[in-house]
Amino acid sequence: MEQSELETSSTPRSPASTLLFWLRDLLLSVFLAFILIVFVYQPVKVEGTSMMPSLTDQERIFINKFTYRFGGVDAIERGDMVVFWFPLDRTKSYIKRVIAVPGDNVEIELGKVLVNGKEIDEPYVPAEYRDSQSYPPTRINDGQYFVLGDHRSSSNDSRAWGTVERRFIYGKAVFVYWPLQHMGRLK
């Protein structure tokens, strides 16, 4: 006759045994959280208004570091909100939207962004956040990305300091977790 139920002990656990059981589970949870934060997701705080209305000042978001670390050269796409080390001061991180990728030609004519000769649709930039700046036609080199803030009239971005090297991009913004009323996946 086969037994299909788990056998249980009728003797209760000692307090020390119970404590070790919970301590083991707690340490395993902390270890898994550490691995997740170091290698996959990292919480960051948005500072400033350059990505409004998509992201607001003091919002807390998660960035996915795994996607770009192991995703290869083509992992970064036009439209991604990326977190990177600021090219002029590597102690600061910035978050901006990728507008042009290696091989693209980018140009801005009085606020209208053209990539490879065609105006791109930017529903994430409301009319009141646009500006009338221009930027000369530029070809984006291998390993470089052209990034802009969504709040064009208050963003320090590739128009001012040029492209971002691939090696300085370390994450993709994926989820807002604070404040709770803004909680959700980023598009």
Structure description:
This protein is of the alpha+beta class and 187 residues long. The protein has a single domain, classed as Umud Fragment, subunit A (Ribbon). The chain is built from three helices and twelve strands. The chain has helices at 15-40, 66-70, 158-161, and strands spanning 41-45, 60-64, 81-85, 93-100, 105-109, 112-115, 118-119, 135-139, 144-148, 164-165, 169-178, 184-185. Strands 1, 2, 3, 4, 9, 10, 11 and 12 form an eight-stranded antiparallel β-sheet that branches. Strand 6 (112-115) and strand 7 (118-119) form a beta hairpin. The termini are far apart.
Task: Provide the fold topology.
Blueprint: H1 15-40, E1 41-45, E2 60-64, H2 66-70, E3 81-85, E4 93-100, E5 105-109, E6 112-115, E7 118-119, E8 135-139, E9 144-148, H3 158-161, E10 164-165, E11 169-178, E12 184-185
Antiparallel strand pairs: 1-2, 2-11, 3-4, 3-11, 4-9, 5-6, 5-8, 6-7, 9-10, 11-12
**Mind telling me the CATH superfamily name?**
Umud Fragment, subunit A
Mean pLDDT: 89
CATH topology: Umud Fragment, subunit A
Runs in which pLDDT lies below 50 for 5 or more consecutive residues are: none
Compute the gyration radius: what is it?
Answer: 23 Å
What are the secondary-structure elements, in order, as H or E?
Answer: HEEHEEEEEEEHEEE
Tell me the fraction of residues in β-strands, as a range. 25-35%
Instruction: Using the 3D structure, state the CATH architecture.
Output: Ribbon
Largest sheet at a glance?
8 strands, antiparallel
Number of domains: 1
Give the distance, in angstroms, between the N- and C-terminal Cα atoms.
57 Å
Helix content: 10-25%
- CATH class type: Mainly Beta
**Counting H and I runs of at least 4 residues, what is the number of helices?**
3
Structural class: alpha+beta
The 3D shape can be described as elongated
Overall strand count = 12
